[in-house]
Amino acid sequence: MNWTNAIEQTIRTTTANISRFKDKFPHVSSGDGKYRLVDQTDWTEGFWAGILWLSYEYSQDPVIRDAAVQSVASFSKRLERESHLEHHDIGFLYSLSAKAQWILEQDESARETALRAADILMKRWRSGPQLIQAWGPEGDPHNGGRIIIDCLMNLPLLYWAAEQTGDPTYADTARIHAEKSRRFLVRGDDSSYHTFYFDQETGDSLRGGTHQGFRDGSTWTRGQAWGIYGFALAYRYFREPQFLETSKRLARYFIDHLPDDHVAYWDFDAPQAEGTPRDSSASAITACGLLELIEHLPAGDPEREFFLAAVHRSMNSLIENYFTAGDEAEEGFLRHGSYSVRGGVSPDDFVIWGDYFFLEALLRLESRIPGYWYERHENMG
Ligand code: GLY
Description:
By secondary structure, this protein is mainly alpha-helical. Helix content is 52%, strand content 7%. The strands form 3 sheets. It has a 3-stranded antiparallel beta sheet with strand order 5-6-7, covered by helices on one side. It has a two-stranded antiparallel ribbon with strand order 1-2. It has a two-stranded antiparallel sheet with strand order 3-4. Helix 3 (62-81) packs across helix 6, helix 9 runs parallel beside helix 11 (280-295) and helix 11 (280-295) packs parallel to helix 13 (352-367). It starts with a helix and ends in a 14-residue tail after the last helix. Glycine (GLY) is lined by residues 150, 212, 222.
């Protein structure tokens, strides 16, 4: 199946899902082909909005646009209610919903919503240890002073807010956080910690750890994927070479540690045996991250071909072995995503962010539609 056919199959599934989900949001599933639906209470709702905007941008179908616009209204209400906003994933939620609508349609109210969301994310800045705290209130005994690699993908909301408002504070904050993530989350052998702890008062570095990985020192594959894409986007904004180099280092490690079918297991250090879960979402995120990274490599750079070949191998395997391919009974695109293997939450099934990044990768490959992480005032490439 080629990229175009795959995109068309995802749009068939999405069209069916609009009627099935109504005003709810898909989260993860557990083996029955159906998504568990949530109502603006989690970190994942933006991915459904993002799928709707991508599908609309590609198809220009007004029914899909209506659903996307309705979803943005629900993100705006979430801000008004101040509901479930006390975490760093504000960037995932609002980049792919309100910011997407602004990027596509220059809708002023969507812009205001996304800017208000950026202000909420800024409230997680802790001036003592100089970082964006992932979870929990200031002073929290366990999560105070804790950063996670996933947050690299929330920073683009701050880069965008800096551009939109002319206020450099958003970008300065994001830059300090990205640099701290680079220094402490990425290890010398190009693997990564999922999370890192700092002293809340002094900012002294304490230790690496994990939240969803196999063990504290392991490399959780989705974390590595967030880093590949997140550092490439940091480079797009700041143009500082160390961010590009870090994205490349994480990418080489990811590619070098893939199994024969080119789709990652859930943790690079988990023992591999019959039945060890994959995380197809990590490979979909990495495909997008590599396509972003390639855009920043000069034309003659030999690694362009290396990274592009890796994208093609993984995407072909996802399409052949993991994709539901428009099967009417299935609500997801990609099987064998893993939310939290150790936590027993959707350890081997659909996860909505896997579907989002699978579609974003297909559209980057086929139509040069890059998702909604940044404004499109620069030509791609
Ligand atoms: N950002 C949460 C996760 O990747 O599961």
